[in-house]
């Protein structure tokens, strides 16, 4: 495949490999709620030569006795190969499968978010493109360590094709009755954008974001079951009411564009999910969280997920700009380290996504554990001073607050 990549930090090789796997034709807008991303970032600009069509045609020909290479994609192709041909021949259009529209969208949002965070920090992210050789898919991990503002920041996307074993199918049927419990395995697709930012300054809060789409497919590639999941939540070491109110208000506005019930329902779900049960406290001051969301038409829920993702920068950038240069003491830094210890405890003990990832064959451990802070601490029987800001935070974590 003939490719030209403009790279500003010698990152051509991994990005060329990623681009070569599924270089889509120019995207055609499929929903009015999709906002255009930032101007093209040099590290992501890929030009695909005509040889790309030949390469993808060869894939189809290898699986098809008739050697067909047009839109009548051979049904005996693996689903990830069929999708690659679809993207090359048709681009991403309103009639494209939802999995391809979600994949395109999270790639664009990753570029937009990374560009915005680089402006805040002043240092560039490193970019690591990877592939799942055992089956299909891969991802792009954008990571910043020991920056000017962020001690550790990661903005990852993953696009995964694979097979669900019978045990996983039976477990998922609790929420998705249309899954066939008699089959030994099912093809599945999962795409998501996951992000965690750990600032240096203890006055600046950690933030977590994850939005994902999952579907299972029949042998002919048709969708059998599908759902969206995700959320955004804030974890401060020192509580500022104005930050909490702003963060929750922004999420509430995104939710109410689609359903008045979403914010209170998903806020409560977030408070319950991000609970460090063995400590009897929440990980942070919440946000929204939802999973297995399939109660409306796919396009409606896709639009909702887009609005949630679009709300991230307006919800967090004003907060980090206010707090990144605030003065702090060594004692306050020590408290931040203890709070990060709680963050680690939740992620390794309670988080379902971490457990699922680490127990998935061929999983990329570096990307899964990207969410952990660079540093953390534990002290035996530590308790904050009565009446202190630290004690006030604990009171809120033990008794979640309705911020809006």
Automatic annotation (TrEMBL):
One of its GO terms (molecular function) is coproporphyrinogen oxidase activity. The keyword Membrane applies. Pathway: Porphyrin-containing compound metabolism; protoporphyrin-IX biosynthesis; protoporphyrinogen-IX from coproporphyrinogen-III (O2 route): step 1/1. The keyword Transferase does not apply. One of its GO terms (cellular component) is cytoplasm. Gene3D superfamilies: Coproporphyrinogen III oxidase, aerobic. The chain crosses the membrane at residues 44-63. InterPro entries: Coprogen_oxidase_aer (IPR001260), Coprogen_oxidase_aer_sf (IPR036406), Coprogen_oxidase_CS (IPR018375). Its EC number is 1.3.3.3. One of its GO terms (biological process) is protoporphyrinogen IX biosynthetic process. It comes from the Eukaryota. Keywords: Heme biosynthesis, Membrane, Oxidoreductase, Porphyrin biosynthesis, Transmembrane, Transmembrane helix. PANTHER family: COPROPORPHYRINOGEN III OXIDASE, MITOCHONDRIAL, OXYGEN-DEPENDENT COPROPORPHYRINOGEN-III OXIDASE, MITOCHONDRIAL. Belongs to the aerobic coproporphyrinogen-III oxidase family. Homodimer. This is coproporphyrinogen oxidase.
């Amino acid at each position: 495949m003939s490719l030209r990549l403009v790279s500003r930090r010698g990152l051509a090789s991994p990005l060329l490999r990623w681009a070569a796997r599924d270089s889509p034709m120019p995207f055609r807008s499929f929903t009015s709620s999709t906002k255009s991303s930032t101007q093209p970032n040099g590290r992501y600009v890929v030009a695909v030569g005509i040889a790309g069509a030949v390469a993808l045609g060869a894939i189809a020909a290898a699986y098809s006795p008739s050697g067909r290479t047009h839109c009548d994609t051979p049904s005996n192709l693996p689903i990830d190969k069929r999708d690659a041909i679809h993207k090359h021949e048709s681009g991403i259009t309103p009639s494209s499968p939802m999995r391809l529209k979600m994949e395109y969208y999270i790639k664009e949002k990753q570029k937009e978010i990374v560009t915005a965070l680089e402006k805040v920090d002043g240092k560039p992210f490193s970019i690591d493109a990877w592939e799942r050789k055992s089956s299909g898919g891969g991802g792009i991990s954008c990571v910043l360590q020991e920056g000017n503002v962020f001690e550790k920041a990661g903005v990852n996307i993953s696009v995964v094709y694979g097979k669900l074993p019978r045990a996983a199918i039976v477990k998922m049927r609790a929420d998705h009755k249309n899954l066939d419990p008699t089959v030994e395995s099912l093809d599945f697709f999962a795409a998501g954008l996951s992000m965690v930012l750990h600032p240096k300054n203890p006055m600046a809060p950690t933030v977590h974001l994850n939005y994902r789409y999952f579907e299972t497919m029949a042998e002919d590639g048709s969708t059998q079951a599908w759902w969206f999941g995700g959320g955004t939540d804030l974890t401060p070491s020192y509580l500022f009411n104005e930050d909490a109110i702003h963060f929750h208000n922004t999420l509430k506005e995104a939710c109410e564009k689609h359903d008045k019930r979403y914010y209170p329902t998903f806020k409560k779900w977030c408070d319950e999910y991000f609970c460090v049960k063995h400590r009897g406290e929440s990980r942070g001051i919440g946000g929204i969280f939802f999973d297995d969301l399939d109660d409306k038409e796919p396009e409606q829920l896709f639009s909702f997920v887009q609005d949630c993702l679009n709300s991230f920068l307006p919800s967090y950038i004003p907060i980090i700009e206010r707090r990144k240069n605030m003065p702090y003491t060594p004692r306050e830094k020590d408290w931040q380290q203890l709070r990060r210890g709680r963050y680690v405890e939740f992620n390794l003990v309670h988080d379902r996504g971490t457990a699922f990832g680490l127990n998935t064959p061929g999983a990329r451990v570096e990307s899964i554990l990207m969410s952990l802070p660079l540093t953390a601490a534990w002290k035996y029987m530590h308790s904050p001073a009565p009446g202190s800001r630290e004690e006030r935070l604990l009171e809120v974590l033990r008794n979640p607050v309705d911020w809006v």
